[in-house]
Design brief:
The chain is an alpha/beta fold. The chain has two domains: 307 residues, Aldolase class I (TIM Barrel), CATH 3.20.20; 55 residues, no CATH class. It contains 16 helices and ten strands. The chain has a ten-stranded mixed β-sheet. A hairpin with a 4-residue loop joins strand 9 and strand 10. Helix 7 packs parallel to helix 9. The structure holds iron/sulfur cluster (SF4). Iron/sulfur cluster (SF4) binds next to helix 2, strand 3 and strand 4.
């Protein structure tokens, strides 16, 4: 939906940059990351590059939910699908918009020059398709994801859906065009509370959400249930068993319990008291944990007031760079992630070399693969140790 001028000027003042029906914004966490004052929880949980994040929405005025906790200016939105803009044109326009928004940042006294250079000059390698609107209502979402997936610079694509488009999800799955990680927002365990919180445009909204949830365990991608805890509205202890039943039934790979934040336009619909503190999120998660045999709490990020559950049956990598086939070839790993040069920095990484009879970190992915076959070590267990080492030593220290 082409954005009307009156709304466009309001969005430009809100530091969005618009391209047809789509928009980009520089996330507050990207700004913090560029001046080494913290990173977003998705970096901590999944290893994404916060400085190379493109926070965008393909059709930002199109949504078929009216969630009361939404910080976005929902009053501008419509649930009607519209003429879909060309995805290639959109990508190019948003990259220009993002550069325009970043341009002033280069002169910031505290800016990390290397992070800024990568953020400004390199193609965004993390696409957060969740800025505003329902992404699956954008008719060419498959083409958009296809273009991004075929770009060798892309490392991760996250899509957040409200679960109202199960048909579209099936289609994307059949075409193998699902994002690298798919989020489904679930903020109520039953239809009555769902209608109160999501205020769906579709009369069969709950049925559509349930259909989407039933799809997750068979989708060929990483899946996350995103629960936004609204204090005093959807976090009563009486609801815990219903949530546990719903979440266990869904068997997503991850569950994120995240605090509602008293921000933006949501302040016209909710009160400050509805915003939980991190300790409230921890308490809710702990109680839920007792009722979720398939899951375990593995991480948290207090600045974002979020707790992460992982499914015990999840066999994939926690951090999103090793289990991506695109990193099979040598140069991509070294160029994009310079992983081994990072490891060299840490004398402690010597223990991994010794354990797996590796001479030095002067190697690349393929040589490591050949080495593991030669000495009879399981490559994945070597990568797992490298992953954990990087997580414990590198990502934490890049705050
Ligand atoms: S991944 Fe999300 S939280 Fe992290 S920088 Fe991008 S938009 Fe912000």
């Amino acid at each position: 939906m082409t954005i009307p001028l009156e709304i466009k000027s309001k969005l430009l003042n809100m530091q969005y940059r618009i391209c047809g029906s789509s928009a980009v914004e520089i996330c507050s966490w990207t700004k913090k990351h560029l001046i080494n004052e913290g990173s977003c929880y998705k970096r901590k949980f999944y290893g994404i590059d916060t400085n190379r994040c493109m926070e965008m929405g393909p059709d930002i005025l199109c949504c078929n939910h009216n969630c009361i906790y939404c910080w976005r200016p929902m009053e501008f939105m419509s649930s009607k699908e519209s003429e879909a803009m060309d995805p290639q044109e959109m990508i190019l326009g948003l990259i220009e918009g993002r550069k325009n928004l970043l341009s002033g940042f280069g002169g910031h006294e505290k800016v990390d020059k290397e992070k800024f250079k990568d953020a400004y000059e390199l193609f965004p390698n993390h696409w957060a398709i969740s800025l505003a609107g329902e992404p699956l209502l954008y008719d060419k979402i498959d083409e958009l994801i296809s273009i991004l997936k075929n770009n060798k610079e892309t490392r991760s694509i996250f899509v957040v859906t409200n679960g109202q488009e199960p048909k579209k999800l099936k289609e994307l799955n059949e075409k193998d065009l699902l994002p690298v990680q798919l989020y489904v927002s679930v903020n109520a365990p039953n239809e009555k509370l769902y209608k109160e919180i999501a205020r769906p445009a579709n009369s069969d909204g709950w049925k559509r959400l349930k259909e989407t949830l039933n799809l997750l365990k068979n989708l060929n991608t990483r899946t996350v249930l995103r629960f936004t805890q609204i204090k005093g509205l959807n976090d009563s202890e009486n609801l815990l068993e219903e949530y546990a039943e719903l979440f266990e039934e869904t068997q997503s790979n991850f569950i994120e319990i995240k605090a509602y934040m008293f921000l933006g336009f949501s302040r016209q619909r909710l009160k400050k008291e509805n915003m939980p503190f991190h300790k409230n999120v921890q308490a809710f998660a702990e109680k839920l944990n007792e009722l979720l045999p398939s899951y375990e709490i593995i991480n948290e990020h207090s600045p974002s007031r979020i707790v992460l559950f992982r499914n015990k049956n999840f066999k994939g990598e926690q951090l999103i760079f090793f289990n991506d086939p695109k990193y099979e070839s040598i140069d991509k790993i070294d160029k994009n992630w310079k992983i081994y040069s990072i490891l060299k920095k840490y004398r402690k990484s010597r223990k991994i070399l010794d354990k797996f009879k590796i001479d030095s970190w002067d190697l690349d992915y393929l040589t490591l693969k050949e080495h593991s076959e030669k000495v009879g070590f399981d490559l994945n267990s070597i990568l797992k140790e490298i992953n954990e080492f990087i997580h414990e030593n590198y990502l934490i220290n890049t705050k």
